[in-house]
Structure formats: C-alpha cells, structure tokens
Amino acid sequence: MAARTPLDDLRREIDQIDDAIHDLLMRRAAVVERIGAAKGNGAAENGTQPIILRPAREATILRRLMARHAGSFPAQVVVRIWREMITAFTRMQGPFAVAVYAPEDRRGFWDVARDHFGGFVPMTAVNTPAAALRAVSEGTATVAVVPYPAEDDSDPWWRFLVSADAGRPQVVARLPFGGRGNARGENRDALAIAAVPHEPTGDDRTLLSIEIGGDLSRGRLKDSLEACGLPPVSFCTWHPAGHATGMSGGGPSVHLVEIADFVGQADPRLAKLLERSGDIPVRVNVVGGYAVPLHLG
C-alpha cells in the first residue's frame, strides 16, 4: 500500500467537511419542517393560508452572511448557494411556482429568475408582464417576475397593481439580489410580484402609486414628497387613454414613485402628503417594495 501523502490528508479533511455540511443541511431541513408545521397550525387557527414566502427575511439572512464572509471564496457564489437553499426549503412548506416574463427576445429575465429562485423550482415563461401578474392573481404561480419599470413603457404593467386591496399582489423583491452572474440579455433588472406582505429590512425601497385627478406637475409632486419626508428616487408616469400626456399636468395621471425608505400603508407621511394636495384629488397606495440588493463588486 502506498504511503499516505499530505495531499491525501487534505482530501480526507475535505470529505469530512462535506459530510459536516451535508449533516447541517439535513438538520436545517428538519427545522424547516417544524416551521412549516407551526405555520400551518397557526393559519388553521386563524382561518388563513400560511405565508411561506418571506422576501424580507431572505434578504436579512443574506446580508448577515455577507457581513461575516471572509476569505477567497467568491461572495456571489455564497449568495447563489443560499438562494438555491432558500427556495428549496420554502418549497418544503408548500406549493411554489414562478411565472416569468420571457418572450423569445427577452430570455435574460428567465436567467435572472432562475438564479434567484433556483434551478429546480417550477417556472413558466409568458409573453407579457400582464400574463405573469395574472398567474399570481389566479393562483397558478406564487411569484411573477417582470421587468423593472421604465419611463418609456407605453402600457405599464404596474398599473394593474394600483389598488387599495390589502390582499392584492405587490412588489416584494428586486432581481438580481446578488449580482447578474452570466445571465443573458439586456442589463435590465426585474421585480418579483407576490401576494405577501411588504416588510421592512432596514435598507428598503417602497413603490407608491399616486393617482392625481387634476393639475399637479411632477415637479410640485416631488417637492411635496420631499417635504413630507418621502425622498423620491424615480418616477414613471401613465396617463389614462384620452387624457393629456404632458409632464406639467393638465389631466388625470398615475405616477409610480420609488421612495428611498420603507413606507407602510398606514404611514403618517402618506396622510401628510394628502393634506398638502389641497383641493386636487389625490389617491396614494403602496404597491410594494424591496430590500436594496447587495453590492458585491
């Protein structure tokens, strides 16, 4: 028998580490099963469906891991490993599927969705963002993945989220969370939409729909938001068919405004914004938000 070399010892150590990692994965799965049972019991008592998707919790986990990460192993790969694990463990608690806006010429969104939700989750490609949203509303998908809004979208998908219904689907995450990797296609981010609560993580963005029924320019709206402590990051505007399309007002308009903070529907800053609008009809709804993605270099 050949003498054991230092390389053999190192490989033996790697095998032991692999066994330890595998043991911890099985231990984590057992804990997740107990969590799923606890959620099911609580939902049964309240007569509700258990919430198995917690994007804010997922972001908090990954931020904590990145804060402690050291050494030469790529941080982006750690995020990818944990993203696979998170979705796998989520699926242990209940059905989970994704509908992705991914027509033939926009396959990059499929890659971004796969990287975030894992390579084994059921995913369906659809040809319009509206179809992805409809899949969530009808219950055939847990999450819809749609393009990040752009100012030049002539028929913006986000207008379908403008509602005061607390149970409606809303924005819950921005993708990619840990870098694009080798995803194909244009360098445009995506948003994940699901019928789960918008929860704070400590570093968040919130999307507000602001419906204006009169003459209020975007500049004045921006000033009002800032005066109420709602710092706007970006605007997208949609004018219903048959009305003026000028940016200075002149007719009903709906704005999607990204705010650099967490904002809940009961946030007093929203009431303050309505007070500042005076006689101009204004309606504000939170259409969700997301944890700010990691910047890993």
UniProtKB/TrEMBL annotation:
Query: SUPFAM superfamilies from the entry?
Result: Chorismate mutase II (SSF48600)
Organism's domain of life?
Answer: Bacteria
Mind telling me which InterPro entries this protein's record contains? Chorismate_II_sf (IPR036263), CM_dom_sf (IPR036979), CM_II_prokaryot (IPR002701)
One GO BP annotation is: chorismate metabolic process
Q: Which residues form the Chorismate mutase domain?
A: 1-97
Q: Which GO terms describe its molecular function?
A: chorismate mutase activity
Q: Which residues form a coiled coil?
A: none
A Pfam family of the record is CM_2
Write out the entry's keywords from A to Z.
Plasmid
> For this protein, what is the EC number?
5.4.99.5
SMART domains from the UniProt entry: CM_2
**Signal peptide boundaries:** none
Q: What class of enzyme is it?
A: isomerase
Q: Does the keyword Ligase apply?
A: no
Kindly indicate whether the keyword Nucleotide-binding belongs to this entry.
Answer: no
Question: What name is this protein filed under?
Answer: chorismate mutase
- Biological source species: Azospirillum oryzae
Ranked from the top, the taxonomy reads:
Bacteria, Pseudomonadati, Pseudomonadota, Alphaproteobacteria, Rhodospirillales
